[in-house]
Design brief:
By secondary structure, this protein is of the alpha/beta class. It is built from 11 helices and 11 strands.
């Protein structure tokens, strides 16, 4: 889970900053702080109405916390500051970095799953129709010469989306064969960008810019946001085969200044109201399966039923090695 290490259609993040006065009132010591600081990856958004509801329901205030980059940067920065954390609670550590958080003891208690996203390829339906070319049904087909020069992906050393898919290829193809697939992709005109936004909004033909690539590494949820108002159909589709399921977690940070408030925020993130807002605000699926998805999601962006089993991969022990191998193969 960039699943998001970024998510699509990032918006301006509204935050509430509470300045708490210290001192004595009526002869009594000042009450404990009610401010709760949140650390997250760059693309996480909590809608204003939920910020206000959290305050009303709990009496705690969500203050402007720290945006710490993508998932990897977020996790590593929290490890470096674990003795004096920059926040009370963290959101956005995913299953590719959860082991780092656990091994370094930065979480008080356990990480709690909040949402998930399926990293899959998307394609431009109109481009393929105009070209008279049958779109691929699996990413394994992208090495075929008929798809030469059509695919853009993200660099797994700088993008959580790209890293998730690298892990998917290793899980699906095995240690011996994944480098061969990537070498074939390189020779088939693969385009690589630093992050998801450049790949989707600039290079992808259906991303709103002047892109030249009709196949992009994105998410199964992405087609819900390319619906043409004229005909009610999505201009893109997701290849929901052998995707990578990116699970995002939240947790109370060890040594937090306000652990009570952090636990209240963690509980709030698990409420149905918060969960129901996740698709619209962050383009991810709520972890609570009883929450109904928006209509466009149900029609155009169902979660993948086919994703790679990566449970046997040791991300933490091999991440740097695999990233280095990928760079040597794809970028020479």
């Amino acid at each position: 889970m960039q699943i998001k290490n970024t998510r699509m259609f990032r918006g301006f993040v509204a935050v509430i900053t509470l300045a708490l006065a210290a001192g004595v009132l009526g002869g009594c010591a000042a009450p404990a702080t009610k401010a709760v600081a949140l650390a997250s990856h760059d693309s996480f958004i909590i809608p204003d109405e939920l910020i206000n509801k959290f305050k009303t329901d709990t009496g705690f205030y969500l203050e402007g916390g720290a945006k710490l980059g993508d998932t990897g940067e977020l996790t590593n920065k929290l490890v470096l500051t674990k003795d004096s954390p920059v926040a009370d609670v963290v959101f956005g550590i995913d299953n590719t970095f959860a082991g780092v958080a656990t091994a370094n003891g930065i979480i008080d208690g356990e990480l709690v799953a909040i949402d998930y996203a399926d990293v899959c390829f998307n394609y431009d339906k109109r481009w393929f129709a105009k070209a008279g070319l049958t779109p691929p049904t699996t990413w394994r087909e992208l090495t075929d010469k008929k798809y030469e020069g059509l695919t853009v992906v993200q660099n797994p050393t700088t993008s959580s989306t790209g890293l998730a898919f690298l892990f998917a290829t290793i899980g699906a193809l095995g240690e011996d064969n994944w480098p061969l697939w990537w070498a074939k992709m390189r020779d088939n005109g693969l385009k690589v960008t630093a992050g998801w936004e450049d790949a989707y909004y600039i290079e992808f033909t259906a991303g709103g810019g002047a892109g030249k690539y009709p196949i992009v590494l994105s998410y199964s949820s992405s087609p819900a946001f390319t619906v043409d108002a004229a005909d009610g159909d999505s201009t893109t589709a997701s290849i929901n085969s052998e995707c990578f399921r990116q699970i995002e977690y939240a947790g109370v940070l060890k040594n937090a200044k306000n652990p009570e408030g952090a636990r209240a925020l963690l509980a709030f993130m698990q409420t149905k109201e918060f969960q129901a807002a996740m698709p619209g605000a962050n383009y991810v699926y709520p972890i609570d399966e009883s929450v109904e998805l928006p209509e466009a999601w149900a029609k155009f962006a169902p979660a993948s039923a086919s994703f790679v089993d990566v449970s046997g991969l040791d991300f933490d022990a091999n991440r740097k090695k695999w990233q280095k191998q990928w760079l040597e193969i794809v970028q020479g």
